[in-house]
Amino acid sequence: QVQLVESGGGLAQAGGSLRLSCLASGSFLRINGMGWYRQALGKQRELVARIVIDGVTNYADSVKGRFTISRDNAGNTVYLQMSSLKPEDTAVYYCNAEVKTRTFAPVRDYWGQGTEVTVSS
């Protein structure tokens, strides 16, 4: 089983910064991509940023230049540095990992429980 545990959410003022972390633990062979998604009240979940095993990243247009995704050397922890926060960044942020648990098992998506980010104007 694979568990993703997020931390670092909270309240920030517009223009401020927050850093989210997500640690993957459990039994698995490899984590391919890891990413952050968010879901604001009444809206669909959307991709914020993603980083794959070779370090290639992609970002939603709304966060480019403000958010930075990174991964530790072991590849089991992903971070999201959020700067120049805006009220529209307010959402529950979810960590996602694409995990291969066994040699002949398909890659599966796993999700964290979510961490709230609230940005006040």
Principal-axis shape equals elongated
- Total of DSSP H or I helical runs spanning 4+ residues: 0
Q: Could you tell me the radius of gyration in angstroms?
A: 14 Å
Mean pLDDT across residues: 95
Unreliable sequence segments: none
Series of H and E elements: EEEEEEEEEEE
- Secondary-structure class: mainly beta
Per DSSP E runs of 2 or more residues, the count of β-strands stands at 11
Helical percent range?
A: under 10%
Strand share of the residues? over 45%
Distance between the termini: 40 Å
Main sheet, how many strands, which sense, barrel?
Answer: 7 strands, mixed
Oligomer: single chain
Keywords:
121 residues; mainly beta; seven-stranded mixed sheet; four-stranded antiparallel sheet; 11 strands; 57% strand; elongated
General description of the model:
The model has no long low-confidence stretch (mean pLDDT 95). With 121 residues, this protein is an all-beta fold. It is elongated and about 50 Å long. Helix content is 0%, strand content 57%.
